[in-house]
Amino acid sequence: MTNNNLEAREISFSFTPGKPVLERVSFALAPGEILSVIGPNGSGKSTLIRVLSNVLKAGSGEIFVQERPLKNYSGKQLARKIAVIPQQSSIEFQYRVLEVVLMGRAPYLKRFQLEGGRDLEIARDALAQTDCLDLEDRRIDEISGGEKQRVILARALAQEPEILLADEPTTHLDLAHQIKFMSLLRELRDKKPLSILFTTHDLNLAGIFSDRILLLDQGRVAALGTPEQVLDPELVGRIYKLRLRLVPKVFERTPFLVPALDKDMQGLQE
Amino acid sequence: MAVLTRSKLFSVLGLLLLALFLSVLLTLYFGPVQLNFGSAELLGQFSRLLHSGELSKEGTILFRVRLPRTLLAVLVGGGLALSGASFQALLRNPLADPYILGVSGGAALAAIIGMVAASAFSFAPVPIFAFGGALIAIFLVLAVARSNGKLPVITLLLAGVVVNAFFSALVMFVLSVASGRHLPSAIYWMMGQISPKPYSTIGMVALYYIPGLLVLFGLARDFNLFSLGEESAQQLGVNVERSKLLVFLAASLVTAVAVSVSGLIGFAGLIVPHIIRLVFGPDHRLLLPASFLFGAIFLTLCDLLARVIIAPAELSVGVITAILGGPFFIWLLHKSRERLSR
Predict the structure, then answer these.
(1) pLDDT value at position B326?
(2) Alpha carbon distance B135, B137 (integer Å)
(3) CB–CB of A102 and B239 under 8 A?
(4) Residue B282 and residue A111: Cβ atoms within 8 Å?
(5) Fewer CB within 10 Å of terminal CB in chain A, N or C?
(6) Distances in Å between the alpha carbon of A183 and those of A13, A170, A191, B157, B296?
(7) Mean pLDDT over all residues of chain A?
């Protein structure tokens, strides 16, 4: 058995019987690997993250977290291994940034235990890593969207996870913040043993920032491999029902795809 | 620093405890009848109270009227504020309050039915009836308000208003039909009243509170994580479904017990947690106990006002809390109006 951080074996999931959202999805996430998940709307990307983080229970198949079945983990145990960054966090009540980051320490605390000096140290370290240290006393509802997403990342890092799952983490960010956020993820992966799985609608972001790409099509794995292997205009175009064109020489190795629009700006495949 | 430390927790709670003690002394001191006790006489009357002896006129006023009334205000105010804070955390909605949600209305109706039953069967645990009524009300409100698996603020408030109006009408109906001498007056139920009760009743209230308070204080950190959203809370290790159920049960229990001895006192559960959050921040590990203490202070002082404003006549304490709470609610609603469009 290989030494994987996270492994899905033939997992399936459906909200209503007979209409699987995920169908026999298998993949493995190695330590230090960044895997992106792409696919059209409704292909099961978010559901995959929710199943992997045990919010939804897989109907069949099995998930292993560091070689141990997911179902054998308690909620707190799992939260020490896997941290999740949601697509958009609406945080109720006016917490300070540092308080939000400290919530990431919850899996390590007993019921009536308050965060101690070490927890504070870890939280500040997480804020430093995400370039948010100067925000710690700001109210979470007063900072910008880009800052908030980095604070949420800091909260996830405070969990000291070995696996980071991020559900479209850059969807609500402008281009500069998208790049900053993704670069940050890659830096973190380089610094510590952290495996990262993120979903995205941006094919090129996936190409640039991931080691491997998982392409989902109606809940099934359509392709799994390096960006060069998966980002094939034919293959991706067929699944997204869109004519795609490869722009050469944008990057040295990573393919760069754009919609192939005709004069009338039509690009949809029949 | 924003972070909750042990010293911050204990100094804030200590301060509030002191303030509570002072407001209790204040309410014992003030009233239509001026009390002049020497310390020896005070102790003498107190020991007579303990040994069920005959009290002097002043002793009766202090120990049979003002003290039990004040203690009841402490418990009811604390309980309503605590359950308000809990409902707000659970529903991620700062406008929630047991009264606005209709929980109090359900509890009141069931309490009255319990009292009618009690007069028929000579025994019925009224707070348990009220607890059942509170649970029915909250599940009714949630069922009405839920749309597409979500709880929009606007439908939640509307459902609360409707359920409350419905239960209030039923309260009036049952009171009119039963109109027994065992039942407190309609004004008691509709506006809420703190009245002197036997110490046994006050002890019973405290006893019913214990499991509720333990559960709610024990889940304080989970409440913080709920602020991130249920899914994030779960991904941080919270057993969301179990915690939610426990909170609903515990907050409904505390509300129900408070309502069964004081009727419908509105807005304490809304105002108090909000002020605590403004001053000390939203961390529920401080917010919950601090809301309990400040709620106790708040209602004690409101009840003092109710007693003295038109003395020798009395107002219902609910009149005071509603006069303070109505404008406050509108201000809160105005502040969060952009949330309503969601």
Answers:
(1) 86
(2) 5
(3) no
(4) no
(5) C
(6) 32, 11, 12, 44, 52
(7) 92
CATH superfamily of B70-337: ABC transporter involved in vitamin B12 uptake, BtuC (1.10.3470.10)
Contact list in A for residue B6 (CB cut-off 8 A) is 114
Q: Under an 8 A CB cutoff, do B282 and A94 touch?
A: yes
Collapsing DSSP to helix, strand or coil, A89 comes out as coil
| Chain B residues touching A137 at Cβ < 8 A | 1-2
- Distances, alpha carbon A111 to alpha carbons B40, B132, B222, B237, B327, in Å: 46, 29, 9, 12, 38
Other beta carbons within 10 angstroms of residue B274's beta carbon come to: 22
pLDDT digits (tens, 9 = 90+) for B161-174: 899 889 989 988 88
Integer Cα distance of B186 and B141 in angstroms: 24
Which run of H or of E encompasses B214?
helix B199-218
B180 to chain A, any CB pair closer than 8 A? The answer is no
Q: Select from B7, B156, B232, B241 the residue whose CB has the most chain A CBs within 10 Å, as the one to mutate to test that interface.
A: B232
Put simply, the answer to whether B221 touches A109 (Cβ < 8 Å) is yes
Token reading at B219: 């889940």
Whole-model pTM?
0.91
Q: What is the residue extent of each domain of chain B?
A: 70-337
Q: Tens digits of per-residue pLDDT, A23-75?
A: 999 999 999 999 999 999 999 999 999 999 999 999 999 999 999 999 999 99
Locate A225 and state its tokens. 């491999």
First to last CA, chain B: 33
Other residues' Cβ atoms within 10 Å of the Cβ of residue B64: 15
User: Looking at residue A1, what is its pLDDT?
Assistant: 45
The amino acid sitting at B45 is: Q
